[in-house]
Amino acid sequence: MKALKHVLIGVVIVGIVAALATASFAEKEHSEADIKLLKDSEAAPQQSHPDLAKGLTDYANRKEMAAPKTESLSGALESVNSQKQEIVVGGVVVKITENTTLEGQHSLGQVMEMTLNNMCSYVGRTVKCSGTKTGPTEFAATKVRLYDK
Fold first, then answer.
1. pLDDT tens digits, 46-85
2. What is d(CA 17, CA 146) in angstroms, rounded to the nearest whole number?
């Protein structure tokens, strides 16, 4: 039974090391879920391989510090520029990409998909943007929600 436990721990360790090596070579950005998995994986080899457990924790901590943090920006929609794929909210230029989700929310709570062209007629309304601050007055949006009020 003890041998089976060591084999199982070994398989877990090899899997974790392989995943870390693949991620490092691909230079892939890690999501919060990936970082949590790395931190949780540290518990399995804690007693049998404490150096590996510490290494996993250190690696996860470095990735967590390097990962971009999701931020929010809210305010009045000041302008929409469909050609440049950007909007302005509170003096901040918000970049819109093909991966940005654009939504509108009615006062009754119903959410609908929008386009930048649709948003032009809602200048002055409140918007909330989620994404990453890329400069003092620049923001890369992953999601923009326009509110009816």
1. 666 777 777 777 777 676 666 667 889 999 999 999 999 9
2. 44
92 burial (CB, 10 Å; 0-12 / 13-18 / 19+) is middle
Q: Going by C-beta distance under 8 Å and a sequence separation of 6 or more, which residues neighbour residue 99?
A: 142
Q: Where are the domains of the chain?
A: 2-66, 71-147
CATH number at 71-147: 2.40.50.320
Which range among 1-5, 39-43, 105-109 has the greatest average pLDDT? Answer: 105-109
Beta bridge partners of 140: 95, 132
Answering whether pTM is above 0.90, one says no
Among 78, 8, 64, 54, which Cα is nearest to 33's? 64
User: What does DSSP assign to residue 68?
Assistant: P
Pairing state of beta strands 71-81 and 86-89? antiparallel
Q: Longest Cα pair distance anywhere in the chain, in angstroms?
A: 69
